[in-house]
Amino acid sequence: MAGELNSTAENAALAPDPGAPQGCGPLRPSGDSPVPLRQSLFESVRAYGAMPRVELARHLGVSPASVTSVTTDLIAAGFLHEIAATPRDGETGRGRPPVALAVRPGAGHVVGVKFSTVGNSAVIHDFAGNPLAEISQGVGALVQSPEAICRQAAQLIDMALEKSGLERSDICAVGVGLPGYIDSDLGIVLWSPLTSDTNVPLCAMIRDHLGIPVVIENDTNILTLAELWFGDGRDVSNFAVITIEHGVGMGLVLNNRLYRGARGLGTELGHTKVQLDGALCRCGQRGCLEAYVADYALVREASTALNWHPDVASMSQVLEKLYDHAKGGNRAARSIFRRAGRYLAVGIGNVVNLFDPELILLSGERLRYDYLYADEVMAELNNVWIQVDRAAPRVEIHAWGDMIWARGAAALALSHATSDMLGAGAPVAAQ
Ligand SMILES: [Zn+2]
Hints:
The protein is of the alpha/beta class and 431 residues long. The chain folds into 3 domains: 11-103, Winged helix-like DNA-binding domain superfamily/Winged helix DNA-binding domain (Arc Repressor Mutant, subunit A); 108-225 and 404-422, Nucleotidyltransferase, domain 5 (2-Layer Sandwich); 237-357 and 365-398, ATPase, nucleotide binding domain (Nucleotidyltransferase, domain 5). The chain contains 13 helices and 14 strands. The protein has helices at 7-14, 37-48, 53-60, 64-76, 146-164, 202-210, 219-230, 290-293, 295-305, 315-327, 331-355, 375-380, 403-422, and strands at residues 80-84, 99-103, 109-114, 119-126, 131-138, 171-178, 181-183, 188-191, 214-218, 239-244, 248-254, 257-258, 359-363, 394-398. A 5-stranded mixed beta sheet has the order 5-4-3-6-9. A 5-stranded mixed beta sheet has the order 12-11-10-13-14, with helices on both faces. α7 (219-230) packs across α13 and α9 (295-305) crosses α10 (315-327). It starts with 6 loop residues before the first helix and ends in a 9-residue tail after the last helix. Zinc ion (ZN) binds at residues 271, 281, 283, 285, 288.
């Protein structure tokens, strides 16, 4: 990623439809939440922005008396408050003014942090999901010790806190996203390009450093959470996010929930095989999708076909040069992108054939290279995915900046903190 904020594109992409709910968080269907009523009620209010009690009862499929009882507790504990509801069409202004419930934004605050090989960022959100302050910075060394990563996390968080006027003691959870294989449940970094150490208990290390609960997650998964909480995935039950950057990543939401797999590996689309005995992948195996689509694959092709010999440090310049050549009509450069696009179509088609999602979101820095999703590439999907008498999955392009990843990490922290405070066994303590 370029490390520059692309706020305009982010804001445009995140702007809700005029008719869509104004809150944040997945719009889960009622009855699909194995959590206590107080948690599912709170999460419904946050997802829809504001909701009258009677609608909450209908949405959750419980009695109005149950809603009244639970909301009384949540208001007393400082999680919810009453606001004036917008009168619906046909309602007169007589009688008691309509009241809706909304999340009290100051009920808690979380921080989302995103680490990458080119830049780090952090964002603070209140408990209603509103972003309050954000910060980003470049990185010094590419590979660091786990202790250095902890110090950087603390530094970033303190900078964001200073900007927001909050203190560490105001933060109830920190979400951290980073590239690599992450066991989110156990808080362990199995492998990451950010450090040469393996099996690092990074979650506990950062928690001990900050004195705040921490949850960690793979970076593509936090981008997927950003789509689920703030983006186009909010009202979609089954969708996939495919990222094309230095590698090819994928996040998958099935039945409104992020799919993490048994070992925390989730979905490694980049290392699914598209060619027997094919091109060498950076994972050491052959024929992986990313060995045909990722930036190093394009640069490798360029060095062979165009006799360019770049060093690794200038990879992005080589890609820009290759793209310029393709735009200028250079046949070899065009065919390199075209071939990568065709392999990408095979990868997307395989995802559709395996999971049948409603929506595929293509995201990442490489999506600036429009050859990867040219009309002929998208048309090729029809030769790859199964054709039935139903609408084909939508494929959308999101070329977002860095901050959306940090917002996904904040969503992870919000989810974690909400479960801690309102989940099974948690006392509904006064705030
Ligand atoms: Zn591979």
